[in-house]
């Protein structure tokens, strides 16, 4: 499943590059992140960028499937190894801090990092 998401992410970057829908600097940053050649960032920063991109891709897929995001579902317990993707309120509310409303892999310690998106797919935070 992780390979499928990485494939989708890579294909999205290639499509954007070919279609000319992005500025060259953002295409370069995306390709550097995907290929892991951004020498100035640490491994964790590259993983964070990849996790954010993967979370947004999952959100897009689930949005096309008609998923209702109003209840703040966990998008994925494994967007990349060690990372989950969750939907939260923006601005965050106390209910978002309740463990029962968080991805189970994060609750049980299987994943140490998370990406939070709002119901519209916008990044809230990634840690």
Q: How does this model look, in words?
A:
The protein has 127 residues and is of the alpha+beta class. It has one domain. It has 4 helices and 4 strands. It has a 4-stranded mixed sheet with strand order 1-2-3-4. Strand 3 and strand 4 form a beta hairpin. Helix 1 packs antiparallel against helix 2 and helix 1 packs across helix 3. The longest helix is centred in the middle third of the chain and has 22 residues. The two termini are 22 Å apart.
Characteristic terms for this protein:
four-stranded mixed β-sheet, globular, 127 residues
Write a short abstract of this structure.
With 127 residues, the protein is α+β, with helices and mostly antiparallel strands.
């Amino acid at each position: 499943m992780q390979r499928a998401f990485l494939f989708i992410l890579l294909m999205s970057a290639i499509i954007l590059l070919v279609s000319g829908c992005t500025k060259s600097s953002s295409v370069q940053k995306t390709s550097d992140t995907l290929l892991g050649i951004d020498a100035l960032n640490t491994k964790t920063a590259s993983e964070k960028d990849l996790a954010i991109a993967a979370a947004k891709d999952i959100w897009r897929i689930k949005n096309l499937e008609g998923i209702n995001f109003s209840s703040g579902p966990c998008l994925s317990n494994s967007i990349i190894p060690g990372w989950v993707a969750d939907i939260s309120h923006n601005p965050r509310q106390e209910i978002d801090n309740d463990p029962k409303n968080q991805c189970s892999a994060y609750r049980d310690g299987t994943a140490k990092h998370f990406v939070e998106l709002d119901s519209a797919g916008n990044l809230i935070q990634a840690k």
